Amino acid sequence: MFTFLVNRLFQALIVMFVISLVAFAIQDNLGDPLREMVGQSVSEEERQVLRDELGLNDSYMEKYTRFIGNAVQGDLGTSYFFKRPALEVILDKLPATLELVFGATLIIIFLAIPLGVYSAIHPKSTWTKIIMALSSIGISVPVFLTAIMLMFLFSIELNWLPSYGRGDTINILGWETGFLTKDGLLHLVLPCISLASIMMPLFIRLVRSEMLEALSSEYIKFAKAKGLASNKIYYQHALKNTMLPVLTVGGVQIGTMVAYTILTETVFQWPGTGFIFLEAINRVDTPLITAYVIFVGLIFVTTNTIVDLLYGVINPTVDITGKGA
Amino acid sequence: MKFLKTKLAIALLATGLSFSAAAADITVAYDSDPVTLDPHEQLSGGVMQMSHMLFDPLVRFTKDFDFEARIADKWERIDDNTFRFTLRKDVKFHSGNKLTADDVVWTFNRLKTSGDFKAIFSPYEKLVKIDDYTVEITSFEPYPLVLQTATYIFPMDSKFYSGEKDGKDKSIIVKHGSSFASTNVSGTGPFIVTSREQGVKVVFERFEDYWDTKSPGNVDKLTMVPIKENATRVAALLSGDVDLIHPVAPNDQKRVIKTKNIDLTTVAGTRIIQLQMNQNSHEALKDVRVRQAIVHAINNEGIVKKIMKGFATTAGQLSPAGYPGHDDSLVPRYNLKKAKQLMKEAGYEKGFTLTMMAPNNRYVNDAQIAQASASMLAKIGIKVDLKTMPKAQYWPEFDKCSADMMMIGWHSDTEDSANLSEFLTMTRDKESGKGAYNCGHYSNPKMDALVNQANAETDPAKRKVMLQEVEQILYKDAAFVPLHWQNLAWGAKSNLDVAPIVNALNFPYFGDLVVK
User: Could you tell me the residue range of the domain that residue B128 belongs to?
Assistant: First the structure.
């Protein structure tokens, strides 16, 4: 176990190093940050002076060494737009994104599992066909279109739900939450549904196929033969074994969902990390872009490592040290 | 008893209504929010809009480019180089300090050190205090645009911004990184900032001691939220989440107009969108007949009608109506037959190939306009190799004048014709900074001389003649392809009286906004 941890940590460090190199290399190709900082009539000389001040005229190696030197001390640069440390800006916006992902995850759990189980138990029913058809549509409609259609229907036409932003939030121990106010909850509904719509079909199908597989296995047949109540067979025996792969996939997918928030947040003007990332690209706010890429890289590396570790815990037959077997 | 109850209800309702008419609380959604609270840090639309809320200029533009007294209540020209402003005596800053001539002098000196603003104030030698409520501004040479530049002098509270905080000078202007002035503010304007979360919202509340007691404005609290996506911004208005939005994309305007209790207010804009023809990179473009042919081949009226949905004014010149250089006789020239004829005369009957670049997120429908222009040029045999890109990548290309034709939009900071030529059509000169955005490399000494002359002419009538001649020369030489002036649009609930407070400069005077 210990060797595994050290190994994984070492791998993670290498991955992070490569990510930082890439994140840093792209920033020269994103455009000229000066254009967003000065008015149109400022002369080229003025801009050169500012470029020197910002160290933009230094060579790649000079910039990179300076960046790494600061980064190991926890300083990922200062955002041009927010005028605050980039990491601080990201951490500031993180609660909004995490709440969005959390809300979407809840929707997925409470809808995908029952729907998946239902369609596995009644593979021939009309409802199953409808669920499957809808999930095919769901997976092929891009998230921004779903978002705009939802907004059109529920905000403009029906006027039930607000169209943008987070609404009222309450600060609890430094965490701005929208889950505790009515306004905040109403604002969460549409963005969460849009975000959930991407992952939902995948999970319905996953739960369904795993459940189908479980239902055709020997022990279920035996349970049936034994005359156990079908509810007990379905929900106690089959479902339990279905959940293992769902959990593993789910862990990784939640990481991916953080990346998908970029589109959802942009459409709903949701003040989270995905939104500021897209904004940062428009504004050529290079320190913030670099910090975000590294930060997201870190999230992926961490979740993957944790999932690998958990896998060993959940399924003891997997030998994570890679020895023996 | 029942009768009494009804009466009471009506009375309550009436007071409630009158109360809401007296003090309004509105939410405004713009496409961006100001990057800073320091009015001198960046010369951009967002910062200028904010300046008009938190500060007041010496004078400000009216809707028809005339001037209106603000902090200065009187002004007069003393001689060709000197101008005198008399200040109001009853103006208080948000901090409680009284405004005097010292604050104006202090502000002027700070403007001279601001990277973005100093170009506007470069013609001036100094601004001096005559007495507590009188200042005089002196230019090096005779200078006609004193009032125009005075719209950029928003007196700051010199006492508030002087001294040190955390070892740093409070008045320092910092472009990157934070400064005292970028997060603290004391102006004379109708509003104070009560909370600000950058990129999320800014809350403005009415300043109780505002000097302009005659202002009809009744907005007590104004929350400004940035909403980047056009579709979301419109949805926020249509669903009633916000009271006023800007901009409204051309595609959404019909919908805004059709919706009950929501109105669209438009103003003819002054930002000229044009295509420049690079004479340095393409031999054919040196020939005036080819340039004329291109101008005649591009149906800018069609572009305005089809792509801009009528949300722009077709242009035949640089200066929009209302500018001194505007000449009514210089009309758009679309004429395909003539264009073909001109190509033939120039010996390019078979046409040629050229490259074109345009941004795809800077101007309204910029990429579609470029595509349409390219296909129109195909009709006279010019094969266009078009590349469109986000503005962040476009500007470095524009700095290098990378393509044979490049799109640029320009809005004059002084709302004056000379500025347009100075940046877009005058001979490129690194030293003087003239022609800095002239990617056509068009050069005409006669026109250069005229613009310089106009910049030193203090008689408006004579100046007008010179600037009109400039436009005529540019028209004849086909110095560039004029496309259109973008209009500005605001969508708002009908109880907001938007029309009186908006203008072509896109600096809405929210202090005067009346909510019924």
Answer: 59-160
Residue tagged 């138990």 (tokens): A121
The residues, any chain, with a CB within 8 Å of residue B409's CB and separated by 6 or more, are B271, B272, B273, B274, B362, B363, B486
Q: Which chain B residues have a beta carbon less than 8 Å from that of A266?
A: 228-229
Express as a percent the part of chain B with pLDDT over 90.
Answer: 71
Q: What pTM was computed for the model?
A: 0.83
B8: pLDDT strictly greater than 70: no
CA distance A74 to chain B (A): 18
CA distance B397 to chain A (A): 9
CA pair distance B83, A167, nearest whole angstrom: 50
The string of pLDDT tens digits covering residues B406-447 is: 999 999 988 899 999 999 999 988 877 788 899 999 999 999
CATH classification of the domain holding B26: 3.40.190.10
B228, part of any domain: yes
Cα-Cα-Cα-Cα dihedral of A72, A73, A76, A79, to 10°? -170
Q: Do A42 and B43 touch (CB under 8 A)?
A: yes
Confidence tier at B304 by pLDDT (50, 70, 90)? very high
For residue B130, the domain's CATH number is 3.90.76.10
CA distance A192 to chain B (A): 16
Are A50 and B115 within 8 A, CB to CB?
yes
Instruction: Please judge whether A271 and B231 are an interchain contact, meaning their C-beta atoms are less than 8 angstroms apart.
Output: no
User: Could you tell me the two tokens for B401?
Assistant: 């004048």
Token readout for A237 is: 């025996």
Query: Are B409 and B505 found together in one domain?
Result: no
Are residues B509 and B450 part of one domain? no
pLDDT mean over A94-106: 89
> Could A284 and B392 be called an inter-chain contact, meaning their C-beta atoms sit closer than 8 Å?
yes
Among residues B267, B286, B274, the alpha carbon closest in space to that of B317 is found at B274
Whether ipTM tops 0.95, in short, is: no
Span B5-15, average pLDDT: 47
Whether residues B506 and B480 share a domain: the answer is: no
Residue where one domain finishes, among candidates B160, B190, B221? B160
Q: Kindly report, residue by residue over B103-159, the tens digit of the pLDDT.
A: 999 999 999 998 888 888 989 999 999 999 999 999 999 999 999 999 999 999 999
Contact A283 B392 (CB under 8 A): yes
Q: Check A156 against B178: CB less than 8 A apart.
A: no
Q: Which residue has the tokens 């010369």?
A: B43
List the single residue in B176, B200, B241 with the smallest CB-CB distance to A83. Answer: B176
